[in-house]
Model the fold of this input.
Amino acid sequence: MLNTVYDDAKEHMEKSMEAMKREFSTLRTGKVTTAVVDQIKVDYYGTPTPINQVGNVIAQDATTIAITPWEKGLLGDIEKAIQEANIGVNPNNDGDFIKLFFPPMTVEQRHEIVKQAKSMSEKAKIAVRNIRKDANDKVKKLEKEKEISEDDMKRGLDQVQKITDETVKKIDEVLAAKEAEILKV
Done:
């Protein structure tokens, strides 16, 4: 019974960490990645569709992303979607494809992005603490229903805390790596 509680807690905490990593991928670092446009959706025959599903998205070099739509008629829609997304650059439409030129980041921009990353990691930690609370409640409920002893409950609560501490440590490590990546010139 307790192992089920531990496994559920671990699984949900891992999912919170994965969600944070996905959010991190949208942050700009010194080198531009195609993940910058992953969240942008284009109106494709009445359906909001991610840009990478209506054309090829390639990082040509450290500061340029090229988007080649599979249908030429989508160029205007893609351009409009990028402008509305406000990702910090204006799209350049040459009739065949769209290029995004990202200027080199300033020190202030880098520090601002680090703040965003810290905020994202804090959200992940809050989610982990909520999962810990749920797991602790389940352990206490098992003891209350006399399915486990009081000693087992105490050991269970300690184990849940250990799982939580490990996950928070991993979140901090991922944040530190992302911070180093952002600040690297």
About this structure: The chain has a mean pLDDT of 91. The CA atoms of residues 143 and 150 lie 6 Å apart.
